[in-house]
Amino acid sequence: MLRDPRILTGSIIALVVVVLAILGPLFAPYGENEIVGKPFTMEGGPLGTDYLGQDVLSRVLYGGQSVLMIAVLATVLGVALGLVVGVTAAYVGGWLDELLMRGNDVLLAFPQILIALVVLSAVEQPTWWMIVLLVGIAHAPRVARVARGVALSYVNNDFVTAAEAIGEPRWRIAMFELGPNLVVPLLAETGLRLTYSIGTVAAIGFLGFASNPNAADWGQMTNENRLALLVQPWGVLAPVILIGLFTIGTNLIADGIGQRAAKGA
Amino acid sequence: MSQTVTEELRCRVEDLRISLPARGVDVVDHVDLTLKAGEILGLVGESGSGKTTTGTALLGYARTGAAISGGDIEVAGHKVRELGPAQVRAIRGVTIGYVPQDPSSALNPSIRIGAQLRELLDLHDIGTPEERGRRIRQILPEVGLPNDEAFLRRYPHQLSGGQVQRVALAMVFLPRPQVLVLDEPTTGLDVTTQGMVLRTLEELCRRFDVAALYVTHDLSVVATISNRVAVMYAGRLAEIGPVKQIFTNPSHPYTRALLNAIPHLHRPFALTGIPGRTPAPGNRPPGCRFNDRCSFAVPECSAEEPPDVEVSPGHFAACIRTDALPAWDPTDRVVADTDPRRDRKIILTVSDLDIFYGTSHVVHGVNFDLAVQEVVALVGESGSGKTTISRCVGGIHDNWDGTIAVDGEPLATAARKRTADQRRRVQYIFQNPYLSLNPRRTVEQILVRPLELFGVATGKAARERAAQLLEDVQLGESAMSLRTNRLSGGERQRVAIARAIAVEPDILVCDEITSALDVSIQGSITELLNSIKAERHISMLFVTHDLALVRSIADRILVLQNGRLVESGLAADVLDRPQEEYTQKLLANTPTLDRWMDTSH
After folding, report:
1. Is CATH 3.40.250.10 the right assignment for the domain spanning A5-263?
2. Which residues of chain B, if any, have pLDDT below 50?
3. Is A151 on the interface with B (CB under 8 A)?
4. Which residues of B177-204 are buried (b: 16+ CB within 10 A; e: fewer)?
């Protein structure tokens, strides 16, 4: 799989960003909230200071963990939910399929970020798990559509009928007969969903709904420092570049896997 | 067969070589063919033999990834390899026609018949507009269709299946081609439609003096339609000669092995397969390519490529052992028919079976029974309900009324409502082994699961048993850890058979289990089923559209038409002395090798 140049490049880029986010705090020259100079100047570290005079480089190194973690958890949640709904709809079929998929269509009609904003502005203090939940649930209908489509091409295959004919329990058919066939196509979908998760989580941060307003967070940083974009662009650019790189990396992986799946590898 | 072959050479292929440049291997090499006007040359071979590749090469076409890399191709005076793309396009469809599998699929469902026929002539700018109309009106009666304005204004879906095929054939002959390449045109068609297509093709080829290359895997079709036959194996011609010579004095061991794998309609024939696998391009053995599977091979066979030996005038075999082959006598493979006085201990009874799909009633009041260690064949054309009946017995289709009883114990409609023991006793084998085995699971997982599910064996015992089963179906234990996508079609079907017999069933329901496979593999699977039946005392319900195959495997036969049982009885009785008009029609349309059985020909 790593011989595919796309998957290899994507993996390297994504890995570099992840490592940076995880190990970043160890190498940060200053503390997360340490004031190192006047705001929006090139004092302190090489990337200058932010709106409070904190060191941008250090905040970037500190601020990746929360974004990536929330994004990954939200993706896992969304894919798991979507998978259950999609495979159930495809395998059981009939009225349940109709019910699930029409309900799904209703959810799809809501803009992903809108639901999140409605809930987050309604609560007093957003917590990280709320964001995971909201982003994850917003993904589920999209994953469900894909999972149903893929599962549908297998549910009428003779190997499923053969398992039915010997009386294999239905959950075992879903898990062991359908499941393995869904892995590769859904891996591609997962990669895509992860990309969207990062985008959404960063957007939520940018709009100011962070669980901890003082903490460093790539999404939040773009919001905090946007006023001085012309004077001290690094406060916005540094986190944006990292988010962009990670998105490109995961997208490359997803694309590569998707193409391999299409070729039947 | 009217012999109107003239001496006019229409097509000449010399030393043809087609290779895969990316891998540097040859798919086809050293192929020499000639076609005379009014002649049909049958090119037979199994999958991977390069027969279709050779056929399309006449049109100057090689599939993506392959290239015609050597040799001369001359079609009706055109040197195809020297033509530019535009020139090749100009002769395709006009001078040299191509008929694909299921010719009617070439018709556009949203264009009227008349417009489609005319389009072809317009495209190649043949004749004046009035002439085009006249030609269309002339050709339609030739294929047995009306040529009035009302007919021309119809759409393909308004015609019957047979008529659509006829239109497609008319389309092929409309530009008066000089050479035709027919690529399995009747594969997948019903016997009656196939019979019609073959008769029409033969007649038109003779009438219009066309030289045709008929590419197929079906030797019985070739025996019916062609003047000469070429047998291809692993990219080379093994044998070529007049049809009578090929069938009465086959002189290449491969041809003989193929003939031994083909059932005959009027004699019960002990079928045998060919051991081993057809070698893929790049893996072909040195010397004679058949040497590793040949029972007549001597060490010299692998030393160098055999020359073409002229066995009799115009009959060549690429084999150095032609002198060593015994005289060909197919009758010594004939076995005894089922003894009609045999005791029948009934195990499966089907009575008053009515089957529905939604609200449509597809099978009407069918009654039959099956005895222990007996094979009952369900035959009929598509839509006759034969597969549907078998699916009800297997509990896969549950919308039916009536009684299906095993040992007097009535079965529930759906498999899930039956007891575990009832499910175990009836096992179903599917037509297409590419769909019936999960591509993501290993052979071991596939075989062990039913053993565990029915509590036959677990853990190590189950694995040992799976290994034994693989030996029983002649696959070998080494296949255990493979995923099924690493196996060939025949090997997959063996795994499917192993899965079915794993739980010691009493009844096997076999749904067209050989029809997706090559001839030689069909032969070996039939051999395997016969031995399973004898050793394990298993009864089988054998669904097939191939009447000849019935004679080699079944004791009794049930003929179905539109969901009704029209005739039943011992296989020998029904096939030799059919009472019903429908059975007679089916038999008359079934291509067969029987006419070559008597060596006195």
Report:
1. no
2. 1-3, 600-601
3. no
4. bbbbbbbbbbeebbbbbbbbbbebbbeb
